[in-house]
């Protein structure tokens, strides 16, 4: 299969992190390592199937690292890779733009508190 051809650097970025959920997953992971269940709680409107698919794609693209823990029951941690960390300025810009836009247009952002351990 021939390699993808791009005509603009933005195409490369959008191809990797585009879609409804990938930027949100990355934004949560820039806060630190999260277990699957914590990501699921932080993203209540995404389906389990979609979250797993998006995590697998981000892992395949080298932006997220999946680390199983040898516990009973088994658990999996997700974290940004070194390459994933290079997206933090982009994610921060998206966050700030969204926050400003929400305030300006009167949108309400519902925050989800992390679950206590």
Question: Which features does this protein show?
Answer:
about 120 residues, Arc Repressor Mutant, subunit A, 3-stranded antiparallel β-sheet, 6 helices, globular
Overall strand count: 3
CATH architecture: Orthogonal Bundle
Structural class: mainly alpha
Main sheet: which strands, in order across? 1-3-2
What CATH first level would be assigned?
A: Mainly Alpha
Distance between the termini: 47 Å
Provide the gyration radius in Å: 16 Å
Which topology does CATH recognise? Arc Repressor Mutant, subunit A
Strand content: 5-15%
Shape: globular
Q: Number of helix segments? A: 6
Overview of the molecule:
- A three-stranded antiparallel sheet has the order 1-3-2.
- The mean pLDDT is 90.
- Helices cover 50% and strands 12% of the residues.
- The protein has helices at residues 9-17, 22-29, 36-42, 48-60, 82-85, 88-105; strands at residues 34-35, 64-69, 75-80.
- It is mainly α and 117 residues long.
- Strand 2 (64-69) and strand 3 form a beta hairpin.
- The protein starts with 8 loop residues before the first helix and ends in a 12-residue tail after the last helix.
- The chain has a single domain, classed as Arc Repressor Mutant, subunit A, CATH 1.10.10.
In a few lines, what is going on in this structure?
This protein has 117 residues and is mainly alpha-helical. It has helices spanning 9-17, 22-29, 36-42, 48-60, 82-85, 88-105, and strands at 34-35, 64-69, 75-80.
What's the helix and strand layout?
Layout: H1 9-17, H2 22-29, E1 34-35, H3 36-42, H4 48-60, E2 64-69, E3 75-80, H5 82-85, H6 88-105
Antiparallel strand pairs: 1-3, 2-3
